Amino acid sequence: MSERTWQITRALATAGALETLRRKDLYVVLILAVLMVLGASAFQFFGVKGLEIFVKDVAFTAVGILTTVLTVLIAGRQLPEEMQRRTIYPLLARPITRGQLLVGKWFTAWLTAGFCFIMLALLTLGLLRVLGICLQPIFMQYVILKLLGIGWLCAMVVALSVYLTPSANLTLCLILAFGSGIFHRMLLMFHWESGLEAFWLNLLYGLLPHYDFFDMSKKVVYDWAMVPWWVIGAMMGYAVLSGGAWLFIGWLRFRKQVIG
Predict the structure, then answer these.
(1) Is there a contact between 80 and 161 (Cβ–Cβ < 8 Å)?
(2) pLDDT tens digits for 19-60?
């Protein structure tokens, strides 16, 4: 990334953060946090002895669902709202290319959604500590991998937002995000096939989005040992390459798109 592109990305991210405060997105996170605190207090009242795995599973499932929904909503509105409010015209009137604008909007969505996730993750960690439930060091790898997944998901949502209507984009991305694990299990059920059928199944498996690869919540719940760091590095490479491919696909359309 050139210095000029980084300056533009940083400026757009700052403006996006101010827009997030104006839209009160963080208030939604705080309200959800209050609800989680109230739920934790109920567990504390009745006791959690023997229910540690259940409590952790519920907590991290809630964090995963809320994070995914918030990420799709935040990323899905970046470009469409600029077009609807016609604020994209003064942006493009500046010495900013459409590719730089696309990267800036992706970074804005990643920064905002990542901050919301970190708030929820730290709150969950604190609540579990209050309940006397400790997490293993793999929690750190869970946070890192989830942030990579949020960046990857933002790239996909921003890219598809230039092809689809806002409602269609949100619906499709939520289906792909929540259904990716189910789709892959369905394909693996047919993995015993041989010949050409297995080849096409393997090809389809490789082409489908793999958002579920970035989820280590179950490993945190069941107190796994830390995975080798080369695995995290490999997932970082996948996130960069796959996310970059999504942004490139979006740029192919956005660079020639008639706005108005």
Answers:
(1) yes
(2) 766 666 667 766 766 676 666 666 656 665 667 777 788 888
In a domain? residue 260: no
* DSSP annotation string for 218-256: HHHHTTPPPPPHHHHHHHHHHHHHHHHHHHHHHHHHHTT
DSSP 193: -
Domain assignment present for residue 49? The answer is: yes
Q: How many CB atoms lie within 10 A of CB 50?
A: 7
Measured CA to CA, the distance from residue 93 to residue 86 in angstroms comes to 12
CB distance 78 to 158 below 8 Å: yes
φ/ψ of residue 111, rounded to 5: -65, -45
Q: How many domains are there within the chain?
A: 1
Note the residue count of the chain: 260
Instruction: Provide the whole-model pTM.
Output: 0.87
Hey, what are 177's tokens?
Answer: 């995000």
pLDDT digits (tens, 9 = 90+) for 161-180: 999 998 999 999 998 888 77
77 located within any domain: yes
Radius of gyration of the chain (CA): 20
User: How is 43-94 classified by DSSP, letter by letter?
Assistant: HHHH--TT-HHHHHHHHHHHHHHHHHHHHHHHHHTHHHHHHHTTTHHHHHHS
Q: Which domain holds residue 26?
A: 3-254
Residue 259 lies in a domain: no
